[in-house]
Every structure is written in C-alpha cells, then in structure tokens.
Amino acid sequence: MTGIEVRTARPGATGWTGSGTGAAVWGVGYAVFGTVCAVTGTPLFGTDRLGWAVAAVGAAAVVAGAVASRSAHAAPAHGGVLRPVLRTLCVLAGAAAFGLLMDVITLLFNQAVDSGPGAVLHALSALGALLLAATAHPARTAGTAGTAAAREGAAGRTGRPQPSAASGPVQLAALAGSLAFVPYAGMKLTWAFGGTFAGVSGAEMRAAAERNGASGLWLTLESWGVDATALLAALGVFLLWGLVRPWGQVFPRWTLPLRGRRVPRWLPLTPALLGAATLAPYGIVGIGYAALGTTGLVTIPLGDFPTEADVLLVCWLGLGAFAVYGVALAAAARSYWHRTAPTPLPPQPLEPAPGRA
Questions:
Q1: Which of 6, 243, 268, 293 has the fewest Cβ atoms within 10 Å of its own Cβ atom?
Q2: Are residues 135 and 194 in the same domain?
Q3: What does the pLDDT average to over 227-246?
Q4: Cβ atoms within 10 A of the Cβ of 50, count?
Q5: Which is more confidently placed, 263 or 13?
Q6: How far apart are CA 243 and CA 263, in angstroms?
Q7: What pLDDT score was predicted for residue 167?
Q8: Does residue 208 fall inside a structural domain?
Q9: Are residues 29 and 79 in the same domain?
Q10: Long-range contacts at 104-108 (CB < 8 A, ≥ 24 apart)
Q11: The dihedral of CA 298, 299, 304, 305: what is its sign?
C-alpha cells in the first residue's frame, strides 16, 4: 500500500467556486428540460405535471450555485442557510434519478429504454445530485487564509488517509447485502440452466425474454447458462466489498500500469451512489407492494407465471434482495466517502536560511 497522497492547493481555496458554478450551469439545463417537458406535455414518471417541478428545482439550483460560486472566500457565512438548501436540492435530484440503473441495464441488454425523456431525466438528476453534493460539502485545505499555516507561508496541503476497513456494523451490512442475493441468484441460475422455478421453466423464460425484445447478448448468455442479472449481482457484491475493505482503495497488482496507486474516489462512489439511489427505494417500495399482495389487499398481475403465489415468491426473492443490498450499498458508500475524504496536513516546518544556525 502507498503512503498518504498529498495535494497542494492555493492558500485560501475552499472549493466553492468551481462546484458552485457547475451546479448553476446544471440548474440552467435542468430548468430548461423541465420547462420543455411541461410545455409540450411530455410525461415524466407517468404524469405531465412533473415538468414544472423539475424546472423549479433547476431554477433553485441556479440561484444556490451562483451564491456558492460568489462566496468562495466567505463560505462559512453562508453555510447556515446555503448548505441546507443545497442538501435539499441534492435529495430532490437524487430522488428524481430513481430508475437510472434500470435504464442502463435495459439499454445494455434490450438496446432500448422504456422512456426516452424519463431516461434523460434520470441521467440529468444523477449528475445534478453529484454536483450539488460537491457544492454542499466543498473540499477545504489546510492553508485557508488567516490560519497559522497561511501566516507561516505554508501552502495548503491535503492528503488521503491510509486505506482502511469500514466499521464492524457497516461490514455486517455488506455481508447481509451479499447474502440477500444468494436466493435470487439461485432462482435466476435455475432458469439459466433450464430448470423450473415458480412454475416456469428455463425455456419458457427465454421465450418470454425474446418476446419482450431481449437483445442477442442477453439470449446468448442465457444459452450458455449465464444469467445476465445474476452476473450483475456478482459485480454488485464485488463493488460492495470494495467499498468496505482496504483493497478497494488501491489498484491491485494485475493492473500493471496502475498497481499500488490510489483508486480515484469517484470511480467506486459513482456506481455505488447510483445503485443505492435506485435499488434501495425500488426494493423497499416493491416489498411494500408484495406485502399488500400477500395479504390480499391488492391483486398482483400474473405475467408469465401460472399462479399468484408463484409471482409473489419471485417478487419476495428479487425485491427483498434489491432492498437489503441497496441499503447496504448506501451504508458502504457513506463509509467510503468519509474514510477516503482528503484531510488537512500539518504545515511543513520552515527551514533555516543557509549559513544560519
């Protein structure tokens, strides 16, 4: 493992200027997109009234981003009001990004998305959530103007801590998220190998996938006995443990040009945040729906399954796995965010001039 990664910044830099400008520019595009959808009657999330809400969030982001970009040297004075506003906008944008991961999976394997405007909204919302989060939590340096380090003439320096593991509770959550996929993967692999589960055979599932427009890649993997969603679940578990273990912060030995170097924080955090924002609410809401169906309060559509009991069995296995994994991924991403955050380094001592004691 490498030592602390040191970065030098201009004294007095707070990080508000660049992130605030990016959030403001994003807000302009977000507001324009929402207005166009509202005026043309393009439905978002199944309703044509959401466009104005999107436009309002974008307009608020323009104002908040502009204020943040102008307060680069007075961020603490605005933090009491500006930071809660930015956090609220970040939560709203993150909620609107719901479904982005499903769009990516559908586009990858079916070569299409359910809704073009909806997919654009998901992508824009995810980008905005990242920009707003960066603006609400700017990177600060040790060389802020007015500090002892600045008065001593030392440049502001930050460094990433040594790779470390997450706390015990977070690792237990990662274990639960991993084990939650075991029944789901078993179900999908049973179909992939031609077996029967919940009253449906593997051949019937492949025929249904072909009728629903599955891509050639999806069908080819199924013919090899490899279920695409089970493969994605395995990659998700790998990401989850990379977030909670030290090896997830350093490139492994087999990456010859990069081995031993620190992994950029955005590389695992981007899919982790998108996955958590998609899978956690999708699974939790889905479990509630499955519970209503189990108690008979709502009628569950049969789809390709022979009985409602078969549908509920599949729903509990799939949605339960998504819910547990999504919550575990959110906890792991939060832990990784804090454990890898750049921290101020102490000022370097001044060296005496040559010839002086």
A1: 6
A2: no
A3: 90
A4: 18
A5: 263
A6: 11
A7: 95
A8: yes
A9: yes
A10: 105/229, 105/232, 108/215, 108/217
A11: positive
Q: How far is CA 217 from the centre of its chain?
A: 25
Q: Using one digit for the tens of pLDDT, what is the confidence trace for 150-206?
A: 444 444 566 778 899 999 999 999 999 999 999 998 998 898 888 999 899 988 888
With 90 as the cut, is the pLDDT of residue 221 above it?
A: no
My answer on whether 139 and 248 are in the same domain is no
Question: C-alpha angle with apex 104: 98 to 108, nearest 5 degrees?
Answer: 160
Gap between the Cα atoms of 12 and 110, Å rounded: 50
Using CA atoms, how far residue 205 sits from 182, 186, 189, 304, in Å, is 20, 15, 12, 8
* pLDDT tens digits along 67-119: 888 865 444 445 578 888 998 998 888 888 877 777 877 776 666 777 888 88
For residues 127 and 217, membership in a common domain is answered with: no
Domain limits for position 138: 5-144
Residue pair 346/141 in contact (Cβ under 8 Å)? The answer is no
Domain count, the chain: 2
How many angstroms separate the Cα of 325 from the Cα of each of 135, 263, 271, 316?
28, 23, 13, 14
What single DSSP character describes residue 262? B
Q: Are residues 129 and 252 in the same domain?
A: no
